[in-house]
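It is worth pausing here to work through a concrete case rather than discussing structure prediction in the abstract. The textbook approach is simple: state the sequence, then state the predicted structure, then interpret. We follow exactly that order.
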Amino acid sequence: MAAVTLRGGELTREQVAAVAYEHAAVAIDLAAYEKVERGYRALLAVERKDGPVPLWKLADLSDDEARGQVSDLRETARRVIVDHAAAVGSPMSTAMVRAAMLVRLDTLIQGYSGVRPETVRTLAAMLNAGVHPLVPSKGHLSMAGDLAPLAHIALVLCAGGGAVEGDTGFAVLGRHEDKAEALTGAEAMRRANVERLWPTLKESFSLIVGTSMAAARAALIAWETSRLFNLAIAAGALTCEAMCANRAAFDERIHRLGPGRADVLAVARQLDRWTAGSQLVGCRKGGDAFSIRCLPQILGGIRTALRQACQVIDEELRLVSDNPLILDDENGPTCLDGGNFHGERLALALDSLRLGLAEIGALSERHAFIMTNRARSGGLPSFLVRERGLNSGFMLAQYTAAALASENKSLATPYASDSLPACQDYEDHGALASLSAAATEKVLANVRTILAIEFLCAAQGVDLRADRGTAPGELTDCLRHTLRRQVDHWVNDSVMYRLIDAAVRLCRPGGELDEIVQDVMGKIDG
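Step two, the predicted structure:
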């Protein structure tokens, strides 16, 4: 796999996914190193003129206290990291930690943080050597950015400490999910042959201030959401086959009637292409339920919301979210204290994306419900099983989908509208972007399972229709046969969760259904 080369400010969610999930190597462009060097020289010029940066670290101290801290900046810098490492709970996923390290690295190499070249070199070496700090998953308030989780990463990178086990943080070489041995940060770096370094005072803040953790999580969520939306289109098309949906709902003439309909029109075309050549779609008379008839309008509206949210996430991914920032322009080197660490845009985008995902799940659950409802399914047997008797068929699968869709309703509550003041009211407003990202991850996982259940129900429905001599379209039939290689047609009741688990695996990124859907959608949209 080709290395991901960082130039600073050009990072993409695809690159984040490659480093996070596939452990792609990371390289830093030489021009980026030059930007880092210039930024460090600018910092030194500012400090020669005005004293240590950031100055506000010493603002509340008495003159004697400030002089004491200035006289031991190495220890002051170390303590900034130590006292911010306050997260709790089980470790975050290795993929998430790698993504955050990458995003932080991309922020630093843009040259506005005043860090040394060896600092970014060390962070890149950790990624390439597979040194993965164990970052607790809770306590991320997103005040001044992701202070706590980033501090747990910085503990491993930075020298100092060691008097008490854990002073240098904890890390694994590899993935903790694979039961890799938990080591002190110092020992992990020693075994990986990566030298730890003492941070400067500015570096201690540059390593922890900013939205790198939330932006990294958002980038991975956006990457998966794009794939999941394509799965929703495919699942909806297979449901249309099972329900013998009226093809008139896909007619482009309907979707051209009004402004701003590009996403709706795109979905209609995709559904039409997925079901091309079908003997099922359009063969039944009568009106379809709104969850079928309005598929282009519903999924098209969701597509607009997701596209806009992902655009903001892509922009925030490349933001210099550090603070304070070091600039060197026509006015000479200067230090500016601002608020790029505030993740308001990120939180609002994640809130919007999470609502869109919840809507995908709500729609998909309705499809499972209507296919299992004999009164509305247009001739399919109750709960999609021929021999009712002792068989419950897909009744409980729809229960599961309904439970997950209901859970998503509470998870869809926005975080951007909530804030608790911290730091003696100095930090009196935060966007809670990390909490929004964590909730969005849960919704995404729930929706993937609901879609897997829809695929199971729709494939069963198409099986039952095909028994009567009518065939689905070529593309939707490919979906059905792909599913059938892992999950048999349901005849007599078995253990349902095994079928759902198998379908979920097929729907994960890299799963067989996912790969087929992404390939087909690429050709349709191309």
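Step three, interpretation. The longest strand covers residues 325-329. The mean pLDDT is 91.
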